[in-house]
Amino acid sequence: MSCLNLFKPGVFFRSGISSNYINSILSVIYGVSELEFLILQDQLCEKMEKCKTGSHILPSQPAPCFKGTAVVNGEFKEISLKDYKGKYVVLFFYPLDFTFVCPTEIIAFSDRVEEFQKIGCEVVACSTDSHFSHLAWINTPRKQGGLGEMNIPLLADKNCEIARQYGCLKEEDGIAFRGLYIIDGKGILRQITINDLPVGRSVDETLRLVQAFQYTDKHGEVCPAGWKPGSSTMKPDPKQSQEYFRSAN
C-alpha cells in the first residue's frame, strides 16, 4: 500500500477502525480541520515518496533520462541524455555555483574533456542552480573564482528533479552531493560514486574507469584493481584466469 493511500477513505487498519475515524481523531489532537490534516498528510507523504525516488539506482540498470537547459559554448541550449546515444557519458553533480571545491572540479574536467572525447565519451556537469547562474559563473574570470571559458555543458536542475532521480539530492538543502555517473552508449549505468560535500573527485580516475569499461565491452575480459590501458586483464573463468594470477604474483 502506497504512502499516499494509507489514510484514504475506505482504507481500514488491522484493528478494523476506519481511516476516516482515525483522521477525525488526529485532526482534533493537532488542532486543525480534517481537510487541513489530510492536506498536510499528503504533502508529507509526497515528500517521503520524492526522497525515495532514485535512491535505488544501481550499476547495470538504465540511467534516468535527464533533460534540461544547459549553458553550452556560452549559450542556452536544451540537452538530454538521448543526445548522447551511442557514446559514453560522464554526468557529474556538484553542490553550488560560486563556491570553492566546485570550480576546481569543473575546470579540471573541462580542460581535459578532449581526452574523454577521443575515446567516444562526453562530460556533463550539473547542479541545482539556474542556467542564468551558470552563465554568470562562466563569465567570471578564473582568478576571481569563476569558471571562464567552458568546454563542457553546465546543466541546470533548478527543480532538483535530475539530482533526485539520480539519488544524490540533499533534500533538506536543495543541493546535490558530489555524485558522478558513468553511462555507456546504450544508456546503462556502469559506475556510481557519491562524495560528501567537502571532497572533490579525480579526473584521472574517472578517465581510467571509462577506459576500463570500454575495454571490457570490447574484449569480454575483466580488469583487475588499478588497471590502466596496456596492462594485463583476465578472463572471467576459474581456469583461464590462472594465467593472469601466475604472471601477477
From TrEMBL:
Top EC class for this record: oxidoreductase
Domain Thioredoxin: 57-215
UniProt keyword Oxidoreductase present: yes
Bias (Polar residues): 230-249
Molecular function (Gene Ontology), one example: thioredoxin peroxidase activity
Keywords: Antioxidant, Disulfide bond, Oxidoreductase, Peroxidase, Redox-active center
PROSITE patterns for this protein: THIOREDOXIN_2 (PS51352)
Pfam families on file: 1-cysPrx_C, AhpC-TSA
Listed Gene3D superfamilies: Glutaredoxin
EC assignment: 1.11.1.24
Taxonomy, superkingdom: Eukaryota
SUPFAM superfamilies xref list: Thioredoxin-like (SSF52833)
Catalytic activity: a hydroperoxide + [thioredoxin]-dithiol = an alcohol + [thioredoxin]-disulfide + H2O
Region annotation (Disordered) ranges: 226-249
Entry's Gene Ontology cellular component terms: cytosol
Oxidoreductase listed as a keyword: yes
Biological processes annotated in GO: cell redox homeostasis; hydrogen peroxide catabolic process; removal of superoxide radicals
PANTHER family referenced in this protein's UniProt entry, alphabetically: AT16346P-RELATED (PTHR10681:SF163), THIOREDOXIN PEROXIDASE (PTHR10681)
Protein family according to the UniProt entry: Belongs to the peroxiredoxin family. AhpC/Prx1 subfamily.
Protein name as catalogued: Thioredoxin peroxidase
Organism listed in the record: Acanthosepion pharaonis (Pharaoh cuttlefish)
